[in-house]
Amino acid sequence: MASSIVSPFRNTYRYLQRQAHESPVLFYSVVMGLVGPVLAFGVPPIRERMGYRPPEPIPTTYPIPKRPRRPLQGYEDGE
């Protein structure tokens, strides 16, 4: 009875072992493709628990000075 429960896992392990030996490029490509989403959802919570804080966002506009603007003169500005 116990062997009938473990048999599919044993067969799967043998198949994966054979694929890793006969076509390693495809095997490891699939492994990396499956690990990527796991890391995408697993790493951010771990980073937060370790004290990581995201940096301040990069400014998207130039700060305007807090003074009256002087009119432009010269260099063909309409005069």
From TrEMBL:
The keyword Transmembrane applies. Keywords: Membrane, Transmembrane, Transmembrane helix. It comes from the Eukaryota. InterPro entries: Nuo9.5. Residues 52-79 are annotated as: Disordered. The chain crosses the membrane at residues 25-43. This is NADH-ubiquinone oxidoreductase 9.5 kDa subunit. The lineage of its organism: Eukaryota, Fungi, Dikarya, Basidiomycota, Agaricomycotina.
